[in-house]
Design goal:
Elements: H1 2-13, H2 17-34, H3 36-45, H4 49-52, H5 67-77, H6 83-114, H7 120-130, H8 139-149, H9 156-163, H10 166-176, H11 181-189, H12 194-205, H13 207-222, H14 228-233, H15 242-247, H16 257-288
Helix pairs in contact: 3-16, 5-16, 6-9, 6-10, 6-13, 7-10, 10-13, 11-12, 13-16
Length: 293
């Protein structure tokens, strides 16, 4: 009898087919609206030059062409620094900076989340407050620090500032707090050290969090180099990244609008592809990082 009553209650809580269909339509409409910028960027990259300057502008391309990508390759074929060099610099900075940021943020988050040390709350408060600072506020302190340690005009000028980004520490700390203390205590009873607990227990359990952090960090470093920090920290053309190289296309005037649209699409495809393969972990992290057991 009790089982029948429970089943009836569950059936009452379930949504009807019509409600599910309405929610599906709403979410589909929201998803289509969010995809508009991405579709427009693809359409713009495929437009010939005459369509790029139509007024009023058209959303979809009428006569798609790959001439913009061909012109982009032609521009860099005449450059004294090959495109492959810019590609290597971008990948090296993004991968190295992301790996270092994930490791250091996780190692710093573990004692803040699981070890009862004096000053933990104060340190975490400082981290939260640092999230409120605009990147422009830290440009001068970063420049002075990099100059003092002798990393100016080197890969380290772009990589090491990414290690200290406070967003990763905040995200990892919040997610690690959801891990039961009983798991750590059981490992200590078995004789595991803090180092072993961190690498063999904590890090596998927070895998969705550091996968999410990889996306955020890689996206930020992938587009670095053209901003004021990138231009101020790196002078040598051999150390510039793709974002900086593509931004120089603007100096060619409006006739290079097509190659610029193709370059913007190329720069966007890599982070979007990474997100598509890891979106499940991102959703899991965002839905559980604020929960406590």
């Amino acid at each position: 009898m009790n089982v029948v009553l429970r089943l009836r209650r569950r059936k009452k809580l379930n949504r009807s087919f019509s409600m599910d269909f309405i929610l599906f339509l709403i979410l589909s409409g929201a998803g289509a609206f969010m995809a508009i910028p991405f579709v427009f960027m693809i359409s713009t990259a495929l437009k010939p030059l005459d369509e790029l300057f139509l007024f009023p502008p058209t959303f979809f391309v009428r006569s798609p062409t790959l001439d913009n990508f061909y012109d982009l390759s032609l521009i860099f074929s005449n450059s004294w620094v090959p495109l492959s060099r810019y590609v290597f610099n971008t990948i090296f900075v993004a991968v190295t900076g992301t790996a270092g940021h994930v490791v250091l943020a996780s190692m710093a988050a573990y004692p803040l989340a699981k070890l009862r040390l004096p000053g933990n709350k104060l340190l975490f408060t400082v981290v939260v407050l640092s999230l409120m600072f605009a990147p422009q506020i830290t440009e001068i302190p970063n420049y002075l620090t990099i100059t003092w340690v002798g990393l100016l005009d080197s890969y380290g000028a772009l990589i090491f500032p990414a290690f200290a980004t406070s967003l990763g520490l905040f995200l990892m700390k919040q997610f690690m707090e959801g891990i039961p203390d009983a798991v750590i205590e059981a490992a200590k009873i078995d004789g595991a050290s803090e180092y072993r607990i961190f690498w063999t227990i904590i890090m596998p359990m927070v895998r969705p969090a550091w996968l999410t952090l990889i996306i955020f960090s890689f996206k930020g470093l992938w587009g670095t180099g053209s901003g004021s920090q990138g231009a101020a920290f790196v002078y040598s053309e051999q150390l510039k990244t793709m974002d900086y190289a593509f931004s120089q296309i603007l100096s060619g005037g409006f006739m290079r609008s097509g190659p610029l649209a193709a370059a913007a699409l190329i720069m966007m495809l890599v982070p979007v592809t990474i997100f598509l393969f890891t979106q499940k972990s991102v959703i899991q992290t965002m839905s559980s990082s604020g929960l406590k057991e």
